[in-house]
Design a protein that fits this description.
Elements: H1 6-13, H2 20-28, H3 32-38, H4 43-50, H5 52-59, E1 66-69, E2 74-75, H6 89-92, E3 101-107, E4 110-115, H7 117-121, E5 128-132, E6 139-141, E7 150-160, E8 165-174, E9 180-186, E10 191-194, E11 202-203, E12 212-214, E13 217-223, E14 232-238, E15 244-247, E16 258-264, E17 267-272, E18 277-281, E19 290-295, E20 301-302, E21 314-318, E22 323-328, E23 331-336, E24 341-346, E25 361-364
Parallel strand pairs: 20-24
Antiparallel strand pairs: 1-2, 1-25, 3-4, 4-5, 5-6, 7-8, 8-9, 9-10, 11-13, 12-13, 13-14, 14-15, 16-17, 17-18, 18-19, 21-22, 22-23, 23-24
Length: 390
């Protein structure tokens, strides 16, 4: 169905007495670009395609991954792209040209992006947070959380399946204190809520950029002192119970900075800064179950002849058979520890000056998921330009 010309699909759907269930079944299989056009066919189709039930049914059928950042969206199943790849994110997001953007993470086709331009000018400013669907062109500039003077902050973007809601956790170290607190944004309410409980720790340098949501808990790397190399552990915060617990890091990472936490292969994973190794907690909560998931502790042969340096490589997706997708120095790389190879798939054309240990690119699926609160219009009558039309 995806390979049929749109005119033929529209002709089939326009047949008289075609059951509504069959129309839905056909539409579910269409790409986002076609659905954005077909919603203009009639009021009935507009209503159908805008329903959350339809959006979720279409989402469940999406598996193909694309890469984007300061880059043009490209399918990972296609050949390596050539030529200019830059995307003017400021224009797409309605921002001033002087922006310091970083991708927090992506989930179900939505990107969470933080703009720290005003934060970099004043310690009394909060970063601007934006949810963006590059496939539909929709974006939502989120309300600011209440300001708290902080020494460091971190953001975690995720989907809470228990509440069926997209959420953002802001984790921050209160300025001048060994104290970490959390604010949680929920898309359904479009509001922030402050968690009353706090934790006696500070966000550890190097782990501050990448918390991870897994098993109903938000995880980040913390230290009991401002000397970030001492007494480090993983702090887990339960959204259901609103309680903190601590978990031990792998032995090898306890004396080195931790660059990030990720969920890979269905496990909570950690990587050490400057180490091309990733450890996975095979049994959640069991400190003795840390195992090496992936290792690049050797010179790699990159596809373009460049060396794979050790500047904050970030694992995006565990594939299989010892292979992993990495965002590295503004580029996307497919690496295999068994074959001792790295192949760069996408090359950057923009160098950001923002140093948040965040990648300049990320992976996403093309979906209809709206970045706006439920109850708001799923599609604007005159939507902003999507990347699908360029």
């Amino acid at each position: 169905m995806k390979n049929l010309p749109e005119e033929m699909v529209e002709e089939i759907l326009s047949m008289k007495n075609l059951p509504e269930e069959m129309i839905e079944e056909i539409l579910w299989r269409l790409p986002v670009k076609s659905l954005l056009r077909f919603r203009c066919v009639s009021k009935a189709w507009y209503t159908l395609i805008s329903k959350p039930q339809f959006v979720n049914a279409h989402l469940r059928r999406q598996h193909k991954l694309y890469a984007i950042g300061r880059l043009w969206p490209r399918s990972l199943d296609g050949p390596s792209p050539k030529g200019k790849l830059g995307v003017d994110l400021e224009s797409h997001l309605g921002l001033a040209s002087k922006s310091l953007l970083a991708i927090v993470d992506s989930c179900h086709g939505l990107f969470c992006i933080v703009n720290c331009f005003y934060t970099s000018l004043s310690s009394e400013a909060s970063p601007e947070i934006i949810l963006w669907n590059p496939s539909t062109g929709q974006h939502n500039h989120l309300p600011y959380p209440n300001f708290v003077p902080y020494n460091d902050f971190s953001l975690c973007f995720f989907y809470d399946s228990d509440d069926e809601d997209y959420k953002i956790a802001r984790i921050l170290t209160v300025k001048g204190m060994v104290r970490t607190r959390i604010d949680v944004f929920t898309l359904k309410t479009n509001n922030w809520r402050r968690i009353e409980e706090t934790h006696a720790s500070v966000i550890a340098y190097g782990g501050s950029g990448s918390p991870a949501y897994f098993n109903g808990n938000i995880h980040w790397v913390a230290s009991k002192h401002y000397d970030h190399h001492k007494h480090k552990s993983i702090v887990a915060f339960s959204l259901r119970e609103e309680k903190f617990q601590e978990m031990q890091l792998p032995e090898k990472t306890r004396k080195i900075p931790v660059s990030y936490l990720r969920v890979l292969g269905g496990c909570l994973c950690v990587s050490g800064l400057g180490y091309h190794e990733i450890w996975a907690m095979e049994e959640y909560g069991n400190k003795n179950s840390w195992k090496t998931l992936f290792s690049l502790s050797f010179p790699c042969r990159a596809g373009d002849g460049d060396d794979f340096d050790d500047r904050f490589p970030l694992a995006l997706r565990f594939i299989r058979n010892g292979a992993i997708m990495l965002a590295h120095n503004g580029r996307l790389a497919h690496c295999c520890s068994r074959k001792h190879t790295c192949r760069y798939m996408i090359y950057r054309s923009y160098k950001s000056s923002l140093q948040l240990h965040k990648p300049e690119l990320g992976l996403y699926m093309k979906t209809l998921v709206s970045p706006s609160p439920y109850g708001a219009a799923a599609f604007s009558p005159k939507p902003r330009t999507s990347l699908l039309n360029q």
